[in-house]
Amino acid sequence: MEALVVRRLGDPTLPPGGDDSPFEAVSGGQPVPELSSPTSVRVRVAATSLNFATFLQVQGKYQERPPLPFVPGSDYAGVVDAVGPGVRRFRPGDRVCSLASVGSFAEFIVTEEKALFAVPDGCDMVAAGALPVAFGTSHLALAHRAQLKSGQVLLVLGAAGGVGVSAVQIGKVSGAIVIAVARGIEKLQYLKSIGADHVIDSSKENVIESAKSFLKARGLKGVDVLYDPVGGKLTQDSLKLLNWGAHILLIGFASGDVPVIRANIALIKNWTIHGLYWGSYLIHRPAVLIDSLNELLSWLSKGLITVQISHTYRLPEAHLAFAALRDRKAVGKVMLVMGSSAKSRL
User: Fold this and answer.
1) Which long-range contacts (CB under 8 A, 24 or more apart) does 182-189 make?
2) Residue 286 host element (H or E)
3) Would you state the pLDDT for residue 39?
4) 48 sits in which H/E element
5) Contact, 24 vs 17, CB < 8 A?
6) Which residues share a beta bridge with 334?
7) How many other CB atoms are there within 10 angstroms of residue 144's CB atom?
8) DSSP 8-class letter at 6
9) Which residue blocks in 141-222 are alpha helix, DSSP H?
10) Is the pTM of this model over 0.70?
11) To bridge 220 with a disulfide, which of 215, 268, 284, 316 should be the other Cys (CB 3.0-4.6 Å)?
12) Can you give the pLDDT at residue 47?
């Protein structure tokens, strides 16, 4: 089978097989994984998602460092290829999606039955493969942790990225008033099209002044929930917009700068600060994660949410996909699609 193998840590934007690349050249020589238990399932991967965590993992900068060599990749969708004798919920040919700590940048992956989710009829498989991490992160953050309510004000930083787009949509499904911050007219137009009430171009506008002007025009006091996958100065500035009792959701630090939130200010303002490492729910609160993903798949099948696929690439083009992620060219998700028919979408 084809697979993208990390042979050493390094820059994932370098073409596979090069002297400096972390990846082996993609070929069909990797062995197809065998079923590992009576309740294991082998899935033929149709599409798999690129996430910022994977970008960091290939460089050795993520909090979890798998031993070398390894096949990277997290959330994916595909078709059941084979099942163990103890599997009851799935059979070959069923459409499924799931997430893994590693391993989805390959034609086949083996997982346990309990880790798989049925993809509802009518759902696009590429969209299903893009859903778990990005939308799962935002759903747990907004619905479970911050308990976002109708009429509250949600401020989304980095709103045109994979998690940002999902946060905007989940905010609107929840009935919130959404302020979305991104860079560039194309991204702002898209965010408007999915329901953002106010958009701010952080490359051209003063974020605080623009947000305050919008809030004043609507007769609103401030922001109730801050969704932050960016970090850095933008986080520090955004704190000026928060209401008493606001929730701060720390999703990641795409800027590379971890912000400092002063504890005395959080105390005075009665802020609640949430660290959100979505993958750890698999260990500590698996039932919460399972319920969350099932609800999201239901929303996807009903058209309440849509998954914006910004770029798709074939497995040998993974370095181009990582470059699109690094350069923030994406409006939505960057995906790897198995098979020779996949073409880049810009």
Assistant:
1) 182/158, 183/328, 184/160, 186/331, 187/159, 187/160, 187/331
2) helix 286-302
3) 97
4) strand 40-50
5) yes
6) 50, 311
7) 17
8) B
9) 162-173, 185-193, 207-218
10) yes
11) 215
12) 97
